[in-house]
Amino acid sequence: MHESQEHPSLGDLNYKAHRFLETDSKMSDILLVSDRRQRPLILKIARVDQRARADVNREAIKNTVNWLQALQPYRGLITMHALERKGMSPLRAWFGQPAYYTVLHQWPGTPECLVMEYISGGSLSEFVGNKRLSVNLALWIVHYIARTLAYIHRHGCVHRDLKPENILFHVFPDSVNNPKAIPILIDFGVAARAGEEKFVSGSRLWMAPELQEAYELRPLPVDPAWDVYALGLILCYLLTGRRPRRKNYEYQSYDLFREETIALLERDADKGTPTARAARTHLQELITRALDQRPENRPTAQEFAAETATLLADMGTPLPRRELLRMHLEQSDLLPTLSRHQPKLVGAACVALLLLLVLFFPALRRALPASWTVAAREPQTVYAVAAQQTLPAVVDVVDSPPPTTTSTPPATADDQGASLTVTSLPPAASTPAATQPPPTLAPWSQTASEDTPTLARSMRTTGEPPTLAALTFAIDEPAPTLAPLTPTPTPSPPTRTPRPTATARPSATAALSVTGPLGNVQLLLPATETSSSQPRVEFSWQISGQALAADHCFELVFWDPQKSADKRSPVGAGKSTRASVNFAVLANSSDPLLSNLAQSKRPFHWGVRLVSCASPQQIIRDVAEARAYTYEGE
């Protein structure tokens, strides 16, 4: 379909259709729509006009929904939106079970469709065209693509169709470290789980050699190294401005394409500082490894991201510290997990707050001062509180003339317990009783007794509180002794019984029990007790006795000899038997242990352990051999 082509009705979907967008995809059409909030979105509709591919295209829509549901939200992935239907209330849209794809019954062939965000910037292919990018900008772009690949690989997903047309931008990157120009990975129609047997699918121009050999002939176990090979081809494309050559869909190894890129880098090797020239040499090694014919020799996406971050620092455009910290959190899967469960966490926090209010509101009400809750008491109590708070103001009546008592009828049963004697007082003496000590105010008991002063006029009868100027004690009773006010001692808080200590949970990095033989990791270089001031050091090892399993990876780790239980990896897990570490960059790492080991100039230990590729926190076999190394600094 083209931009000018008409489209049928969207049925009960609550979107306004605008136009079809141009696309070279053979699996789907793209319809630009807007929702009730006027947000631009795209409706991705399976192509069903060719019966031979209709079922494949339908499955591609469902496959995209399944993978994006499991992976989003993530900054480097396109966002999929839940469907909005006509008449759906906002409350139901927020709390109801979301639906992400549907069938357009009004369309010919009843195709499936889904709704995703509209990314208006353009694709990587449109951005590059036939021009060469600077080495720094090319490294910056592939660094973020590698981080996205590392994220989906950790969740068991292999994209299988990585190419410049499937990488979009909100805005084109005009410089390095532009946070608005992060590349976005799209099109998960042929994505598959690592290790599954699948027939080869994807774009042959960006395929690894082993995929070209088996194309449409036999299934292969899905391998994340296929995505890394395509990423190496994309890096060559960015550096040269040339796409891989197509040979009429015949097998091609891309060796010539790789050699042309390396020759171009060697031509510019004399430019820049010695550090930049050394970085270009290391870049050539990275390209050679990524385009290796054997998948087991290629770096993982996480290693690719770490090495490009090091190259950017060596070439004078390091990543900001916040990005290095974010990369560290992404590797631990903490940041994506929090982002994915953010709505649930917010809802749980609201429910917990409501429960706390319901459970502790009575105790909070009892803890409030009496003056805050006085309105809930009966009227006579209100008057008593007022009298207690202001009684010291009338202590100057001690030296005034005797008052005259006004007789009143006896109080009724309803008025007992709230009675005092009301007297009429002459004008108060002008001489203040400054030397008189303040009286002691005892709590007012509402129970009538012989010692309780009587109130001539019932407060309940009049409905008004008596004035303090009219309050005094009966003439036939001795005046009370006024004692100084003494502060009430604050009771000491009760001693809390210590809570029992909870049983410690096992660490997330506890070793797994694995059945079957495992190979032995033997360390090669550097030799033990080696010390050097060179910032870049190559660590290498080999495995003997048994080949590395498909779901097992190596992990180079450093640790303090005095704290052997705390091991950290400077490069992450992968299948390569060597790793390059730049200690000058490691000294600025967000990991305090690695940063301290790189700065201390003291010996530390290094070794290699076997971990799960899908979840590097799970250790298959811990370090069996350790060697000491000392970085003496520059």
Short overview:
The chain is α+β, with helices and mostly antiparallel strands and 634 residues long. The chain has helices spanning 51-71, 90-95, 124-128, 135-154, 209-213, 225-240, 255-267, 274-290, 301-314, 321-331, 334-340, 342-367, 379-390, 459-462, 583-586, 592-599; strands spanning 16-21, 28-34, 40-46, 80-81, 101-103, 112-117, 122-123, 157-158, 167-169, 184-185, 192-193, 197-198, 220-221, 404-405, 423-424, 520-525, 530-532, 536-544, 552-559, 573-574, 578-582, 604-612, 619-621, 627-631.
How does this structure look, described?
The protein has 634 residues and is α+β, with helices and mostly antiparallel strands. It folds into 4 domains: 1-118, Phosphorylase Kinase, domain 1, CATH 3.30.200.20; 121-331, Transferase(Phosphotransferase) domain 1 (Transferase(Phosphotransferase), domain 1), CATH 1.10.510; 333-367; 520-631, Sandwich (Immunoglobulin-like), CATH 2.60.40.10. 30% of the residues lie in helices and 16% in strands. It has 16 helices and 24 strands. It has helices spanning 51-71, 90-95, 124-128, 135-154, 209-213, 225-240, 255-267, 274-290, 301-314, 321-331, 334-340, 342-367, 379-390, 459-462, 583-586, 592-599; strands at residues 16-21, 28-34, 40-46, 80-81, 101-103, 112-117, 122-123, 157-158, 167-169, 184-185, 192-193, 197-198, 220-221, 404-405, 423-424, 520-525, 530-532, 536-544, 552-559, 573-574, 578-582, 604-612, 619-621, 627-631. The strands form 7 sheets. Strands 1, 2, 3, 4, 5 and 6 form a 6-stranded antiparallel beta sheet that branches. Strands 17, 19, 20, 22, 23 and 24 form a 6-stranded mixed beta sheet that branches. Strands 7-9-10 form a 3-stranded antiparallel beta sheet. The longest helix has 26 residues, at 342-367. The protein is globular, with a radius of gyration of 40 Å.
